[in-house]
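U., I forgot to send this yesterday:
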Amino acid sequence: MNGDTFPFVAGCIFVGFGGLLILSLLQYLWQRTRWRGRATGSIIAIETVSAAEAPQSIAKLADAPADDAAAAQRYYRPVVAYSVDGQQYRVQGPYALRSSTTRTTYVGDTATSEIQIDRLPYDTGQSMSVGYDRTNPANAIVIDRRRELTVIALQIFCGGMSMVLGLLAFYWNGNLAWLGQEWHN
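Result:
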């Protein structure tokens, strides 16, 4: 190694971070194999929580009129009921944040703001897919394919790019001599 210490350390950090992202993805995919059972459940409630108050349950609609600023800062998750072999179970889905848009209009020296909050991607009564452990059907997850694919794609991209940046830092600094004579500057 004939390079400086900083690029070497930066390369190690980037390669290590990328490796951790890829390994955590592989670990998630390995753990996911235990939820091989499939059932279709129905959303029976939507739980909501914010940092300022205790969790609540919304029995009917999550789109009921409320304070717009407070509703934009809440997290929501579905509670899904499903049955396996005639036995009823419940599982809580992942938290989701409602996206919002703030529009500010100016008239002279006065500004008014309007917050528009988007609908939730789910509502009570809607059916959702559930994956459960065949040996213990109470151990289950709500399957959201779009969210899973997004997370998987982001982890692969960020992990791969981080590893490439780390290897580029090694290459530009001449720290790839351990790969063989053709990599040595």
